[in-house]
Amino acid sequence: MADKAPPGWIYNETVRMFATPGDPPFEDEAELRAHWGRAWGTDNDVGRIRSVLMHRPGPEMAVVDPGKRIEAIGSFGDLESGWYFQSDSVPPLSEMQAQHDALVAALKSHGVAIEYVDGDPGQRLKSCYTRDPLIMVKGGARRTHHAGGCHQSHARCTCQPRHQMDGTALCEDAT
């Protein structure tokens, strides 16, 4: 098989064969409770939502300039400062906040805990995203790395020490 293996196959199979399991494993419930106060993470995409990482739209939205429509792609943006906003129109911040608050209220009414991440009021509109920079796994979250530009500040805002103390265990970076 090694003769016809795709690039990286030999390395990946070698690492898999000689892998050293964590001791204790990252998802060990006793370890999670000892260091984070409770067990975190998920091992499937189906089931009851217990907690959600969210960001309430705020001052970072001020960078969106409705006058900077890029018709060719149907978005708003500024290549020089590195922001973009994908939409047909720019909704008022108060409307975005009202929709966010309604979603939070609906989640809380079902017993879901909300963990908040702060945004970056500077030029990095996308720094407040909570989906892209983390992958939830059994035992916590894996932080991903993004290419430069507007996505570079994801990890800084999403993986703030405040959130580590609130409970979400973070593993090593995923590349």
Set down the secondary structure blueprint:
Layout: H1 9-17, H2 29-36, E1 51-54, E2 69-70, E3 75-78, E4 83-85, H3 93-109, E5 113-116, E6 134-137, E7 140-143, H4 154-158, H5 161-166
Parallel strand pairs: 1-5
Antiparallel strand pairs: 2-3, 3-4, 6-7
Can you tell me about this structure?
- The chain is an alpha+beta fold and 175 residues long.
- It has a domain at 20-61 and 91-166: L-arginine/glycine Amidinotransferase, Chain A, CATH 3.75.10.10.
- The chain contains five helices and seven strands.
- Strand 6 (134-137) and strand 7 form a beta hairpin.
By oligomeric state, this entry counts as single chain
Count all strands and give the number.
7
The major β-sheet equals: 3 strands, antiparallel
* Residues in helices, as a percent range: 25-40%
Report the total helices. Answer: 5
Structural class: alpha+beta
What characteristic shape results from the CA principal axes? flat
* Secondary-structure element series: HHEEEEHEEEHH
What radius of gyration results from the CA coordinates?
20 Å
The CATH superfamily title of the domain at 20-61 and 91-166: L-arginine/glycine Amidinotransferase, Chain A
CATH-defined architecture of the domain at 20-61 and 91-166: 5-stranded Propeller
Average pLDDT for all residues: 75
